[in-house]
Amino acid sequence: MGGRVASLMASRSGAAGLVLCGYPFHPPGKPERLRLDHWPAIDCPLMLLQGTRDPFGRREEVENYTLPAHVECHFLEGGDHDWQPPKRQPQTQATLIDQAAALIARRLCASR
């Protein structure tokens, strides 16, 4: 399920927790059209993993948003929306996926 749909469902259903592997904060090239209206209604723990070059919300944009206090945000260096880094970067998409999986696993283990 996409991040936007999952977050909309969590805002309405009282989910126990939510992990978003990339979130479309706005359409590419239209940062003024934010898709955060429903985020205050998400009351469960929320972990966001976002590529630093994601055209739907780059790191410098996301860091300036007012997100709920229970949002744990992690940035995958060089990743786009699919966590694909540029070829000149030493990490690969697989490396970024492994980093994200480790962060999720660590968070899940800590909450038990």
Task: Estimate the global geometry from the Cα principal axes.
Answer: globular
Q: How many domains is the backbone divided into?
A: 1
Structural class designation: alpha/beta
Overall CATH class: Alpha Beta
- CATH topology, anyone? Rossmann fold
Largest sheet: 3 strands, parallel
Percent in helix: 25-40%
Strand content: 5-15%
Give the topology string: H per helix, E per strand: HEEHEH
Number of strands: 3
- The average pLDDT value, as a whole number, equals 95
Total DSSP helices: 3
- CATH superfamily heading: Alpha/Beta hydrolase fold, catalytic domain
Spatial strand arrangement across the major sheet: 1-2-3
N- to C-terminal distance: 25 Å
Low-confidence stretches: none
Any overview of this molecule?
This protein is α/β, with parallel strands linked by helices. The protein has a single domain (about 5-25, about 35-110), classed as Alpha/Beta hydrolase fold, catalytic domain (Rossmann fold). Helix content is about 30%, strand content about 15%. The protein contains three helices and three strands. It has helices spanning about 5-15, 60, 95-110, and strands spanning about 20, 45-50, 70-75. Strands 1-2-3 form a three-stranded parallel sheet, sandwiched between helices. α2 links the parallel β2 and β3. The radius of gyration is 14 Å and the shape is globular. The mean pLDDT is about 95.
